[in-house]
Amino acid sequence: MTTTSPTPSSLPIIDISPFFDPHSTPSARYATATALNTACTTYGFFYLTGHGIPESKLNRIISLARQFFSLPLSENNKIKRHHAGGPEGGDGARGYQGMGENVTLGRRDMHEAVDWYREWDHAPREEGSGGKGTYKMLQGPNLWPEEPAELKEVYEAYVEELQGVGMAVVRAMGVALGLGEVGKGAVEGEDEEVFVRATERSFWVMRMIGYPRLEGSPDVVGADDMEAFSCGEHTDYGCVTLLLADPTPGALQVLLKDGKTWLNADPIPGALVVNIGDMIQRWTNGLWMSTKHRVIHKGEGYRVSVPFFFEPGFEARVRPLARCVEKTGGVKKYEECVYGEHLLGKVGGNFYGGEEV
Ligand SMILES: N=C(N)NCCCC[C@H](N)C(=O)O
Ligand SMILES: O=C(O)CCC(=O)C(=O)O
Ligand SMILES: [Fe+2]
């Protein structure tokens, strides 16, 4: 485990606006796609501008997150996640999780969080012993806090906007990979809109995360396990992560291609930090890798971030695209997988005790 301090950030900045503007010129879209290809090939991480969400709205999201985490634990626990299949009617994943409940690489992470997923509230519900019935992992309704009162409305609107941003990014990705248009040389079913179709009913995830500073942090249960990482190194699971974080520098770190240098991904005001997930790696046959990253918050104050994971549909089947197999030496590196199964495998191992699946 290296502890050398990361070099300053130099991640590329991608202006996505040509993929929103119906009047944009082909050359403007081409310029964005080209820059995106370089960013995804070299880093798998970049800053996104031109997404159309005003900075004031982004600041509101951060301040509501901060407000929620500053409430007493008893208040936070009103939306505590409950075990899937348990008597409380939970789905194991949605809701509030306390400090150290999340686990990465077998170690407790030093953060607390609330997770929301695409609604699945009409899922079959079996009668449990507690009378409330029980959901399968990931299938229940979302849990929203009473305080701050406006959080639900503001966050739901934010999810709508971010789905549009995610769509624009995956549309640009199809162009960036040179997948081609239908009827103009594209492989059948694998044209430049392939990611757009796969994410049409995105099984998105939004996390609201709170990170106390690591050094001198309060003595919480199992603190000896949690000294090292705010969030241990990992890749994200799906397509594109659209991360909003407060201005704290030095916390989010990205592993470079050399496999040993960590680069700070410090926030740029108004921009989102974007990274690609495991499904993009599979589709591109490893041409674009889902980059490892981690959080070590030793800076000032309590850090908050709100990543939004724009993902394929739960049932989406993901296999290497013929064009990408060609570009990577002709050998298919991954078997077909179903996104929802990949997700269940990950989420099931994410909690301390691992009693979930
Ligand atoms: N939905 C996403 N991508 N969440 C990322 C969380 C990463 C940490 C997790 N404990 C892990 O080990 O994967
Ligand atoms: O808080 C951050 O900056 C990143 C969090 C993250 O990587 C994740 O939740 O997947
Ligand atoms: Fe992540």
What is the CATH superfamily classification?
A: B-lactam Antibiotic, Isopenicillin N Synthase, Chain
Distance from first to last alpha carbon: 30 Å
In order across it, which strands form the biggest sheet?
1-2-12-9-14-7-6-3
The biggest sheet amounts to:
8 strands, mixed
Q: Helices and strands: which structural class?
A: alpha+beta
Q: How many domains make up the coordinates?
A: 1
Provide keyphrases for this structure.
alpha+beta, 8-stranded mixed β-sheet, single chain, 16 strands, 8 helices, binds 2-oxoglutaric acid, Jelly Rolls, 357 residues, 4-stranded antiparallel β-sheet, binds L-homoarginine, binds fe (ii) ion
Describe this structure in words.
With 357 residues, the protein is an alpha+beta fold. It has a single domain (13-347), classed as B-lactam Antibiotic, Isopenicillin N Synthase, Chain (Jelly Rolls), CATH 2.60.120. The protein has 8 helices and 16 strands. It has helices at 26-42, 55-70, 73-76, 151-176, 194-198, 278-283, 322-327, 339-348; strands spanning 13-15, 45-49, 95-97, 103-104, 107-108, 112-117, 205-211, 231-234, 240-245, 252-255, 262-264, 272-276, 293-295, 303-310, 317-318, 337-338. An 8-stranded mixed sheet has the order 1-2-12-9-14-7-6-3. A 4-stranded antiparallel sheet has the order 8-13-10-11, with no helix packed on it. Helix 1 links the parallel strand 1 and strand 2. Helix 1 crosses helix 4. The longest helix is centred in the middle third of the chain and has 26 residues, at 151-176. The protein is globular, with a radius of gyration of 20 Å. Residues 217-226 have low confidence and may be disordered. Bound molecules: L-homoarginine, 2-oxoglutaric acid and fe (ii) ion (FE2). One of its GO terms (molecular function) is metal ion binding. Keywords: Iron, Metal-binding, Oxidoreductase.
